[in-house]
Every structure is written in structure tokens, then in C-alpha cells.
Amino acid sequence: MNKRVPRFAALCGLLLSFAAALLPAHAAEITDLRGRKVTVPDQVRKISIDDGRYLVALSLVQADPVKPLAAWPRDIHRIGDATYAQFVEKFPALRNLPQVASSAGTFSLEAVLSAAPDVAVVSLGGGPTDAQVQQLQAAGIPVVFIDFFNQPFENQERSLRILGQLTGGSAKAESFIEFRRQHLEKISQRVAKLPASARPTVFLEAHAGLTGDCCNSVGPGNVGDYIEFVGGHNIGADVLKVPAGKLNLEYVMSRDPKIYIATGGVHLEKAGGLVLGAGYDVARARAALQKISKRQGIAQLSAVKNGNTFGLAHQLVNSPIDIVVIEAFANWVHPELFKDVDPAKTLDEINKRFLAVPYVGTGWISLK
Length: 368
Prior knowledge:
- The chain folds into two domains: 23-169, Rossmann fold; 194-366, Rossmann fold.
- Helices cover 40% and strands 14% of the residues.
- It has 14 helices and 13 strands.
- α13 runs antiparallel to α14 (343-353).
């Protein structure tokens, strides 16, 4: 018998054991929002994100939402200066995190490779090309697409679950998902009983006062779905075929909507537009809403004449805590039907039970 054979087998065994030790002990499979089955490490240490608003989502599932981050886009305007200051005060490490490209810009492969996350979390509808995805995965960085903004009703729960799974926050993710679902069902059950004729027309002007012309608005999907969900009829969806676009002022006036909702935030301060949200009190927000409602054409709308004019912080629109927006819309579109629905109470509960960084400031306002 050749004595070298057992020795060779033993050596092979040692080599295989050494190779196995270099590989992740376990792996998990995630189906992302593009329907891709992605293998990720079972123990993810760091992720990168391409949208600062994902900080809010991470704040729902992590006591320290900055700890799991290898990099972020530093797109402070998307969450607002005041909210950013809150995060930095509580989690100073955010200030020094490496920067990757925002989903609103051109994807940078080099920035993600340099940050070396265990998983790159990117936005559906933006982010890397298919070729860049393959390059990242070849470099050992799995890519996972999520979405809180394009189709919030379809994708928000799945996206929060993915963030929870990647960061060890699955239990907290499920808790918030159930909380949100209960609040949504309360609204949907009542709206289901409404006849089609009971749906008032709604005009939503996004980034109101950003420029001198009118009107940025919403079509199907995105916040337009919120209007339909609460029993309103979004006039933008009658002509726009995409989630966001522009309406002619003449068209808006011809439809003479019953309800006018404007969105704004700190990003409109210099333009003299609608300002509200974190860093603004009720008086300042209402004064800004009064100003934009006096513009030619807008002032002539029945919604403005009858006091059915409302303002909403844009940072809340495309947000994982959008349930407070939906409840505010319900109040505005069907005040009698939803007089027992209190978005302020809901936000207070979210702040106390879920958010590591509470939302503060005037999130919504009425002209009345």
C-alpha cells in the first residue's frame, strides 16, 4: 500500500478546511425590490446607503442608526438641516462617515468600493447600472435594491424588512410594520364604503413656490397614491403618466379642485416658497402657506376661497413614517369621516416607541 495516499488526503482535508475558514460561515438570501435573489452574509457588519432618508428607516429598526453604516451620500437637504443636526448631536459618527453618490446623481462605483460595505443598499429607479452591479458583486459587495418612494404602498414593508434583516433589526421592523398596517386598515375600511361620487378633487403642488411658474405636481404612484387611498381624486393623475410632473396653471384652474395641498421645506427658504418641517414653528409655517396661496391663479381656486388649503413638509412625503402624512390627508379630504384620526397622536407614538431620532417641527399645517 502506498503510504503517500493517506498523507495526500489529509493534506487536501487541511486545505479545504483552511479555504472554508476564509469564507463566511453562513449566508442568507434576500429578494430585493427588483425581484433579484441576492446572497448576503448572515452577519452583515456595515452597509452603504444612497439616500439620506434611509437614516429615518434605520432609526425605526436600530437604537443607533449610524452604527451599521459604512457610508452615506451626505444629501442633507433630503432630511433637512435641523434633522441632520439632531442625528449628529446624538450620533456624532455620522459627520465623519465616507461619502457615496446620492441616488439623485450619477452612481460612483469607486466610492462604494472605497467604503467597502458588506452590502450596498441602493434605490429602486436609481443607483448603479447592471454592469456596475456585476462589478460590485464581483468585488464581493452584494447589491440590494429597496424603495420607500416610488411605490410606497407596495414596497415600504418589504424595504423595511430588508433593512431590518441586514442590520439585525427584524423584530423592530415587524413591530413598526404591524403598527402602520393597523392604521392603514382603519382608513381603507372606511374608504371602501364611499361611492365614487364622494371623492373630492385634490390638487397637490410639490415644492410650492420653488419657482415663479406653476405647477409641480404628482401623477400615479408616489404621494399621488396617498390621495386616492384616503378617498380623494388626484387631478394630476388624469393627465400625468409618471409619479411626478408639471401641470399648467390653466388646467388646474379649469378643474377648480376642492382641496389644495402644498408641500415644502427648508429647501424653499431662499426661494420664498413654502417652509415647514423640522426647524419651523406653526406661525412661520402658516405665514408661508398664506403667502403661496395668494399667488395669481391659486388664490382663485375654490379650495383656497373655502379654506381647504393645507401645507405638508416634503421630507415627510417620501418617508418611512408616511403614515402620519396619510392620516393628515384623511383629515383634509374627509374631515367628518376621519374626525377620530389624529396624525399628531400617531407621530407622538412613533417618536416614543420607534424612532431613535424623534421627528420634531411642524410637519403639516392648515390655512385655517
